UniProtKB/TrEMBL annotation:
It comes from Capra hircus (Goat). Pfam families: Bravo_FIGEY, fn3, I-set, Ig_3. The chain crosses the membrane at residues 715-736. It is found in: Cell membrane; Secreted, Extracellular space, Extracellular matrix. GO terms for cellular component: plasma membrane. This is Neural cell adhesion molecule L1-like protein. Residues 301-395, 400-493, 498-600, 604-701 form the Fibronectin type-III domain.
Length: 853
């Protein structure tokens, strides 16, 4: 029924992307706030109208790469009119109702995020988007479908968060929250490097990748998992391979594979191991006093790590340098001790030059172990053997949580969240968070609560009230530093007061300016986002016909007390209301304000046609404008000569003062001349835009109009008479020739009445009917059958004669040859006489029949 929602499914076939879907009947289906095509191709109607009734809704799926368009079978939609259309508040169709009030979406970094939100309801709901706890990305909101789609291109990690769509009409609202998570396929931060090593040397391959979730790293040797080809003495970890005592069998292709749920990347490194070389010189021509040969390689790993000067927050690490292999080196000090990632070595500091001792700054409550790596221009050495353990005592936290914020919540409620401390920042056992709060600036005691997780729900006595909030880290050893206060607001509620409309100023027939009084801040109950103007047309002043209530919505952001409302219908009566809205939603509407728009100029006529032209006259016909925008007073008809020259003729005006007149005949035009016609509809406010048409008067016939009646032309009548006369002569000649006197030959009689056995043999010999055979006229076959029966019954010698003579009399003539042809040769059919004539054919029994009426 009219006003109901409906979804027309498309279900396109799978194919090579990209896939383009569009809906058509005789033309493309127009999409707006009421009609929307989803990303899957389904066509949604928020509420159907009688004009939606069609039997040719077709979904087309286009695959450009395949150069293929697939069409779904047409669907019929019938909308029955209803005397009482029930208005209703919005209900979300997208996302589907079964998904609930929230859903989670994962999007890859760099991709495009598309969120859909479409609601049914009457009046048609308006959809708005906002990001909870932040602002929408600039340019992210897709405007082409009345913001039913939120589109964010080139997504970054900053785009993660909670997005909310709200569908509103004056009866209520519906919301849905999207929890967007941004993830990323693996990408390299450090690839393994190919290298050439000498036998007995050491080396290292590093492989590091980033992604969300964190990639898993695996090693392969010549395409096989490295676990199948272990080398004694090598140290293998996810991020590196450390070679010791390289041998020729280390020569291989080493492949690092980083993967997560979104993909896999590979990087190869070629390791070549060369043996010792001996150079031999013979036939020396002279003797050099000395020869110097420098060889370089990765340094040997440091040795004999020693810890001294142990303090609560520091320790001295000393080591012995290995061979630098003729290249300047520096050292990398790494540690292991993170409780969140045991076994993972992290870089702590770097030591420049040839220093072999360093004082390390440490964190409390960590059991440290250290190792040192030497590095030169060739590469890194193998890590040294780990040092002994050094455990720092626990202490109070050194820092407090960061990024304290409030999550969207219900009225009189705060959900406080923060970033928890990492394991290396906790400094001791028993980590907790002390949360304190009080109304901003109020001389009251702080309220306090201690929690172990990183969120806290607090009930407040006031709606959208500012609070000073502090979060401090504490453990068994004490509290962290004095926390800084942040200002957070308790949950919002809907505004409870409506603005008061102060006036509506009519600017012109389609534009008005609305002014209103603002809502007091304490009555907004939240962060005021702006004001919303609702208006609907109640009746046309032209015919007094009332219109169903279809509410239009326009929002003005910020604190303001006026707004311009465009695109109104001229010469109509409207009702208008104003309301305030915040992040929670819209408040109550003001009392309706009634105003009327004045007359305007009409739209252009729906069509203009030249229905008849002569050498000096032209008759034009037109249709009424779709929107009159007032009382029609007449038309302005203009025309001018536009022959194929650089000059155009003078513009002539004709005022047609009869609004109901649908056509006009122009006189005294020039023959063989091309004209351009302009027609404008007019009201008391003036004339609207023109519709144009071109045509030419007759003469040489070059510009004969499309609508001329060819049947009235003299040359055409003469041609038709000549054709009719020739046809009559031809038919008369054929009739006379076929009806000459004389007897038919025996052979022709045999052809007319074949022996059944002979005919059967012929059928077996020549097979089926061929299109190359002569074809009898359909209407004459029944006449032929009647003639055959009559001839056979009239022959008294049939029952006595033998096979070859049964159809002949004593003189060998065909019995009834004349009687059968002349007496039985015509049959009445619908008042026309049809004559049948036998013809001779050497192979098949066929009849060519001529019908003369």
């Amino acid at each position: 029924e009219e006003g109901d929602p409906i979804v027309l499914p498309c279900n396109p076939p799978k194919g090579l992307p990209p896939l383009h879907i569009y809906w058509m009947n005789i033309e493309h289906i127009k999409q707006d706030e009421r009609v929307y095509m989803s990303q899957k191709g389904d066509l949604y109607f928020a509420n159907v109208e009688e004009q939606d009734s069609r039997n040719d809704y077709c979904c087309f799926a286009a695959f450009p790469r395949l150069r293929t368009i697939v069409q779904k079978m047409p669907m019929k939609l019938t909308v029955n009119s209803s005397n009482s259309i029930k208005q209703r508040k919005p209900r979300l169709l997208l996302p589907p109702p079964e998904s609930g009030s929230e859903s989670s979406i994962t999007v890859l970094k760099g991709d495009t995020l598309l969120l859909e939100c479409f609601a049914e309801g009457l009046p048609t709901p308006k959809v708005a988007w906002d990001k909870m706890g932040g602002d929408l990305p600039k340019g992210g909101e897709s405007k082409n479908n009345s913001v039913d789609t939120l589109k964010i291109e080139n997504v970054s990690y900053e785009d993660k968060g909670n997005y909310r769509c709200t569908a509103n009409n004056f009866l209520g609202s519906a919301t849905h929250e999207f929890h967007v998570t941004v993830e990323e396929p693996p990408r390299w931060t450090k690839k393994p490097q190919s290298g050439v090593y000498s036998t007995g040397s050491s080396g290292i391959l590093l492989c590091e990748a980033e992604g969300r979730p964190e990639p898993t790293i695996k090693w392969r040797v010549n395409g096989l998992p490295i676990e199948r080809n272990p080398f004694s003495g090598d140290v293998i970890s996810p991020g590196e391979i450390s070679f010791t005592n390289v041998q020729p069998n280390h020569t291989a292709v080493y492949q690092c594979e980083a993967s997560n749920v979104h993909g896999t990347i590979l990087a190869n490194a070629n390791i070549d191991v060369v043996g010792k070389h001996v150079c031999v010189l013979s036939h020396l021509s002279h003797v050099l006093p000395f020869v110097t040969l420098w060889t370089v390689d990765v340094p040997d790993p440091p040795e004999n790590l020693h810890l001294s000067e142990r303090q609560n927050r520091s320790v001295r690490l000393t080591w012995e340098a290995g061979d630098d292999h003729n290249s300047n080196i520096k050292y990398i000090v790494e540690f292991e001790g993170n409780k969140e990632e045991p076994g993972r070595w992290e870089e702590l500091t770097r030591v420049q030059g040839k220093e072999t001792t360093v004082v390390l700054s440490l964190a409390p409550y960590v059991r440290y172990q250290f190792r040192v790596i030497a590095m030169n221009e060739v590469g890194r050495s193998q890590p040294s053997h780990p040092s002994g353990h050094h455990e720092t005592p626990p202490a109070a936290p050194d820092k407090n949580p960061q990024n304290i914020r409030v999550q969207a919540s219900q009225p009189k409620e705060m959900i406080i969240k923060w970033e928890p401390l990492k394991a290396m920042e906790q400094n001791g056992p028993g980590l907790e968070y002390r949360v304190t709060w009080k109304p901003q600036g109020a001389p009251v005691e702080w309220e306090e609560e201690t929690v172990t997780n990183h969120t806290l729900r607090v009930m407040t006595p006031a709606v959208y009230a500012p609070y000073d909030v502090q979060v401090q880290a504490i453990n068994h050893l004490g509290s962290g530093p004095e926390p800084q206060s942040v200002i957070l607001y308790s949950g919002e509620d809907y505004p409870d007061t409506a603005p008061v409309i102060q006036g509506v100023d009519v600017i012109n027939s389609t534009l008005v300016k609305v002014t209103w009084s603002t809502v007091p801040k304490e009555r907004v109950h939240g962060h005021l986002k702006g004001y919303q103007v609702n208006w609907w047309k109640t009746k046309s002043l032209l015919d007094g016909r009332t219109h169903p209530k279809e509410v239009n919505i326009l929002r003005f952001s910020g604190q303001r007390n006026y707004g311009m409302v465009p695109s109104l219908d001229a010469f109509s009566e409207f009702h208008l209301t104003v309301l305030a809205y915040n992040s929670k939603g819209a408040g109550p509407e003001s009392e309706p304000f009634i105003f009327q728009t004045p007359e305007g100029v009409p739209e252009q006529p729906t069509f203009l046609k030249v229905i008849k032209v002569d050498k000096d006259t032209a008759t034009l016909s037109w249709g009424l404008p779709k929107k009159l925008n007032g009382n029609l007073t007449g038309y302005l008809l203009q025309y001018q000569i536009i022959n194929d020259t650089d000059e155009i003729g003078e513009l002539h005006d004709i005022n047609i003062t009869t609004p109901s007149k649908p056509s006009w005949r122009l006189l005294n035009l020039s023959a063989t001349t091309k004209y351009k016609f302009y027609l404008r509809a007019c009201t008391s406010k003036g004339c609207g835009k023109p519709i144009t048409e071109e045509s030419a008067t007759l003469g040489e016939g070059k510009y004969a109009g499309l609508y001329d009646d060819i049947s009235t032309q003299g040359w055409f009548i003469g041609l038709m008479c000549a054709i009719a006369l020739l046809t009559l002569i031809l038919l008369t000649v054929c009739f006379v020739k076929r009806n000459k006197g004389g007897k038919y030959s025996v052979k022709e009689k045999e052809d007319l009445h074949p022996d059944p056995e002979v005919q059967s043999a012929k059928d077996e010999t020549f097979g089926e009917y061929s299109d190359s055979d002569e074809k009898p006229l359909k209407g004459s076959l029944r006449s032929l059958n009647r003639d055959m029966q009559a001839t056979e019954s009239a022959d008294s010698l049939v029952e006595y004669g033998e096979g070859d003579h049964g159809l002949f009399n004593e003189d060998g003539s065909f019995i009834g040859a004349y009687a059968g042809s002349k007496e039985k040769g015509s049959v009445e059919s619908n008042g026309s006489s049809t004559a049948t004539f036998p013809l001779r054919n050497s192979f098949n029994f066929n009849m060519n029949l001529v019908s003369i009426s």
